[in-house]
Amino acid sequence: ENAENMYFFSELALTLNEPEEHVAPTDSRLRPDQRLMESGRWDEANVEKQRLEEKQRAVRRRREAEAVEALEEGKDYEGYIPLWFERKVDPVTGELICVYKGGYWEAKDKQDWSVCPDIF
User: Fold this and answer.
1) Is residue 3 very low, low, confident or very high in pLDDT (cuts 50, 70, 90)?
2) What is the dihedral of CA 101, 104, 105, 106, to 10 degrees?
3) Contact partners, residue 100, CB within 8 Å, separation at least 6
4) pLDDT number for residue 115
5) Which of 24, 40, 66, 93 gets the most CB atoms within 10 Å of its CB?
6) Residue 99: predicted pLDDT
7) Do 89 and 95 contact (CB within 8 A), yes or no?
8) Where are the domains of the chain?
């Protein structure tokens, strides 16, 4: 109903980005630029998006520098390790996939997000 006024998105698609309480601080629904955009504050959203992107670039540069330093010192460098997923090869397709490794729901139950990085 009324889909033509909602960009022909389904009701499910329209609600996927709705804020939810008690989620990880890394949940993409908490992105400050997105929240600003959705409230129609376009200029502020663009400034915030630029800030977030530069923050991400700085983290990437730091990780790259750490990898170079480890290589020069002959040490292993693991790099970024996702908190809730791990990469595995799908035994059927042979493709690299991400598989949930646990921990999120337990952290959510406890509301202990201490392992989450500050990404926003």
Assistant:
1) low
2) 90
3) 84, 85
4) 96
5) 24
6) 97
7) yes
8) 3-79, 80-110
